[in-house]
Amino acid sequence: MKKLKVSLLAKVAIAIVAGVVFGQFLPDGITRIFVTFNSLFGNFLSFAIPLIILGLVAPAIGELGKGAGKLLVITTLIAYGSTIFSGFFTYFNCAALFPNILPVNTELTAMENPGDFMLLPYFTVAMPPLMDVMTALLLSFTIGLGLSYIEGTTLRDAFSDFQKIITKLIETVIIPLLPLHIFGIFLNMTVSGQVMSVISMFLKVILVIFVLHVLLLLIQFAIAGSASGKNPLKLLKNMLPAYATALGTQSSAATIPVTLAQTIKNGVRETIAIFVIPLCATIHLAGSTMKITACAMAIMYMSGMPVTLSTFAGFIMMLGITMVAAPGVPGGAIMAALGILQSMLGFNETLQALMIALYIAMDSFGTACNVTGDGAIAVLVDKIAGGKQGKKE
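Request: output the structure for the sequence above.
Response:
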């Protein structure tokens, strides 16, 4: 008999509902068992974050540099530009909307100092990280750029193996335990009387992000259509099968065959499409950037933290680079982003857990936005490459 496979989204949804329900009647003594697990898991996550950054970012940058040519540079710059545009587009829209629909909640401000309001663990175990997050980022960039230039393969192979270890850690330890961690967070929030504020925020943010990601796709294809002289709505319509496939698979990599076929249908040369689509499946995460930016802003507004352009400008630009390292597993983008959420926005373990839950609740929509936008980038790259060839002739 075939074993039923439950998606990560379903597990997170069950964990949230179970946390709210069990929080109504479980005694504090039992609740504190889960709070203790949350403390241990949160400390382990803090220990693992620099390793995740180093293990994912360094080899990703190194791989981008191998055999780098003009087409690679063009595609990477357009993908990064699209991702950055998504972040700032999200920031300005959410800055206008969220203060009106997400007023500061005096209960949720407890997330800044949860020990004053929420149950405490029975015990804690310190798990200091080997380095801080910024050190890990700088080290990753330095090693990654170095790997892209050197001829030797020893260090590159070592980091490739380290990347596999980190990916395995995410897939077999962190991701499977996330639902239990989220259950404990919502259980504790229910006991402390904060859960309804959070659920209300979830529903509003999900609606806002869905509308914004539709607008982002319209903008991306309007630019691609204007540059190529093609009908943008027809281009977008042809990419809808890739969008629908990504909703089901929740994976940019798994959707590549469909994305590739629909991109070629849009008139992109096959040689260009075969290069651009797999590359963009790795480096173009405009939809994921939108979700992370909007979710972070919502949580900060609700918990009374200051939200300023100066803070988010650096965060968005760093997020665009970090997204390149997102592994091809459900929730991989948010795992790669935890480091800068912690170092640049000051998110503690509780806020990170809320961030993960809110992000995963919309994981399929972000992936669909990513892969559909890949089609727009392919049209642009095809136009630029074609234009250059025309000049030579």
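The domain at 8-392 is CATH 1.10.3860 (Proton glutamate symport protein).
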